[in-house]
Design brief:
Two copies of one chain form a homodimer. Chain A is an alpha/beta fold. Chain A is 54% helix and 12% strand. The longest helix of chain A is centred in the N-terminal third of the chain and has 15 residues. Chains A, B: InterPro entries: Cbl_synth_CobH/CbiC, CobH/CbiC_sf.
Chain lengths: 207, 207
């Protein structure tokens, strides 16, 4: 069987096909890089309509990355999907708190989800300037509460949890925070989408 | 803000909503568990139409898991998304070869993608009875070649790479192998989908 084996050629052709299938005039150049990378990751053109990027969100994300901030993820999958070579070259890092013993303990003590507890613990480190939530609506709700109570003020919230219970509502809460955000409206989202958005930001700096 | 924080309750309600939105009569009971878990992971009802499960694929997967086989994944994201507690309790394991030095070396020597090289290296360990490919079409093409040349005969191939170049074609090749398979027809798929399918199989044994 014959197939293209050059990853760069595969990506180039993929992005060409995506360009032919969306209205590129709807986006400014850097927004388009995010939208196209998410479609590349999902083969789902719905994302061209549901990704919402607040004014200044891309600049805020790039500022955080250039300052060597830590990106906090809700799941190990989002953490695994972020390009480590690009992160390292920029001097930024990624951290998922979900498996930490303190998270388990806090979750039991207060009868909250581990996802929620991981946000509480993460809020204590001021290096955590980007939050990328790809799976758990409860993590995003808790993050909103921590912002609203003044515990934390991230530069950027990437809020793309997926699902039928709470995901849509949690993402609507993000819009009210007054913090730069990138979200997917409605039910769709996921860990691969969160990672793709972070990687799109990384590739704006790293080549 | 108020929201449901009990993970079991969230999952239960999610599955109820999914049930209301698909034609459940199209699937036998265990197939439905796979289809619903993938929709739960993506909020994308298209998967009810594009997931194809070959005759005997579920039994083959469960046999492999019960024998304590290793599940090989193409990406760290698929590896990260598989429920480790369930795996451990069953005595099965998961392995992603992509970061291994031998893979890097083989990829350079033969000018093939690291994804392809990871399949070549993985084919040498006979404990590897399930292959779960969520991202790279080239990994799936190479796996098909290794099956066709008799290098390896897995019990089950989960072939759900995503994308615009090669993904659809690679999944069509899987159908011709004569090996039990679970695939997603067309462009859609992804690491979260591969992990969801593996987890659905795990939950048929582990509770």
């Amino acid at each position: 069987m014959s197939y293209i084996t050059d990853p760069k050629e595969i990506e180039k052709r993929s992005f060409e096909i995506i360009s032919q299938n969306i209205d590129e005039t709807k986006f400014e150049k850097r927004e388009l890089m995010i939208v196209k990378r998410v479609i590349h990751t999902t083969a789902d053109f719905d994302f061209a309509d549901i990704i919402k990027i607040s004014d200044g969100a891309i600049d805020a994300g790039l500022k955080a990355l250039k300052e060597g901030s830590t990106i906090v993820t809700d799941t190990k999958m989002v953490e695994a999907g972020i390009n480590k070579k690009a992160l390292k070259s920029i001097g930024a890092s990624v951290k998922c708190y979900i498996d930490m013993p303190q998270v388990e303990e806090l979750s039991k003590t207060y009868a909250i989800t581990r996802s929620m507890a991981s946000m509480v613990i993460a809020s204590k480190d001021k290096k955590n300037k980007i939050f990328a939530i790809g799976n758990a609506p409860t993590a995003l709700f808790k993050l909103c509460e921590l912002v609203n109570s003044g515990e934390i003020k991230p530069y950027l919230v990437i809020g793309v949890p997926v699902g039928f219970v709470g995901a849509q509502e949690a993402k609507e809460e993000v819009k009210k925070l007054g913090i730069p955000y990138i979200i997917t409206e409605g039910r769709k989202g996921g860990s691969t989408i969160a990672a793709a958005i972070v990687n799109a930001l990384l590739y704006m700096i790293y080549n």
